[in-house]
Amino acid sequence: MPCVIELQDSGVKFGAEEDDDELNLSIFDIFFEHGHFKIPMFNVDDWTETFYRKIIAYEQHSSDDEPKYFSDYTYFKDLLINSREDVDQLRAMTFLTTGLVMTKRWHLCSISWVKEE
Fold first, then answer.
1. For 60-110, how does the pLDDT look when each residue is reduced to its tens digit (9 = 90+)?
2. Residue 12 has what pLDDT?
3. CA neighbor of 77 nearest in space, from 100, 36, 102, 43
4. Angle at CA 89, nearest 5°, toward 86 and 95?
5. Helix (H) or strand (E) holding 77
6. How many domains does the chain have?
7. Measured between alpha carbons, how far is 89 from 91 in angstroms, rounded to an integer?
8. Residue 114 DSSP SS3
9. DSSP readout, 15-56?
10. DSSP 8-state symbol, 79
11. Rounded distance, CA 84 to CA 88, Å?
């Protein structure tokens, strides 16, 4: 799957889905219709990596749990975000918000959040 920049260059439009009481969206409510990606907002904070590592470890070691929602979701984000430019685009479109104190950029890489220097 192409990353955010490649998708935009090919004409794909993005729209942020904001959760309200009526919609009751989850992070898994991702839609692609008629060349338009709709993705719920995603917040990154100091505990994001720890949370995802733990939940993915649980899914991977629980053979009875199918499908593996968080593993698949993280893999999807890893494909979508390949560079600082992808992160910048998602932030500009308000898909990605951060609660991080630091100013360094973060992106998903091989199921972990990695600082870019």
1. 887 776 778 888 888 888 888 888 888 888 878 777 766 654 334 444 443
2. 92
3. 43
4. 105
5. helix 69-80
6. 1
7. 5
8. strand
9. EEE---TTT---TT--EEETTEEEEE-EEE-TTHHHHHHHHH
10. H
11. 6
